[in-house]
Structures are given as C-alpha cells and as structure tokens.
Design goal:
Elements (H helix, E strand, L loop, with lengths): L1 H36 L3 H9 L13 H15 L3 H15 L1
Helix pairs in contact: 2-4, 3-4
C-alpha cells in the first residue's frame, strides 16, 4: 500500500514537471516568434538565404520570379509564410 502511494506521488511529480517544462518551452518559442516578427525583409533575407548559398542581387529576377522563388525556398529554408512574404516584398521593391 505504501509503495503504491509513493509511486502515485512520483507519477504526480513527473506530470507536474513535464507540464511546467511545456509551459516554459511554449513561452520561449513565443519570444523567438516575436523577435522574428520584428525583423525586416532585408534582415530575414540576409540571415536565411546566406545559410545555404550566396544571395543573388535583388535585381537579378523580376517580381513574379521572386514570388516563385520565395514559394520554393520557403519549404527548403523552413521559414514561415510571413517571413517569406517579408523577404519577397523586400526583393520586389529592389526590382522596381
């Protein structure tokens, strides 16, 4: 009986620890999302695109081409739709 109560207590403590860890991870990921959300398209472009290759001159492609490239690179670079939109808008402004 005592052993069963100890096991239940240990189980409750583990559940509480896991719950608290989940909250902490969630809060931290929101902070990261807010930092990313505050970045400009130019910042996101230089930070994300240069990880894998040299970034082309923004005037190398038309606005429509940047839209297509943005869609393709979103999946490869694992960026959000919002990040992609900021990057593509930055690049399209350079073309005009």
């Amino acid at each position: 009986m005592m052993k069963q109560l100890r096991n239940q207590s240990k189980h409750k403590i583990i559940v509480i620890i896991v719950f608290i860890a989940g909250i902490i991870i969630s809060v931290e990921s929101c902070k990261v999302s807010q930092k990313v959300a505050s970045k400009s398209g130019a910042q996101l472009w230089s930070e994300n695109c240069q990880h894998c290759h040299n970034t082309p001159d923004p005037t190398s492609f038309s606005g429509d081409q940047w839209e297509t490239i943005g869609m393709h690179m979103q999946t490869r670079a694992l960026i959000t739709e919002s990040e992609r939109n900021k990057i593509v808008e930055f690049l399209k402004q350079s073309v005009q």
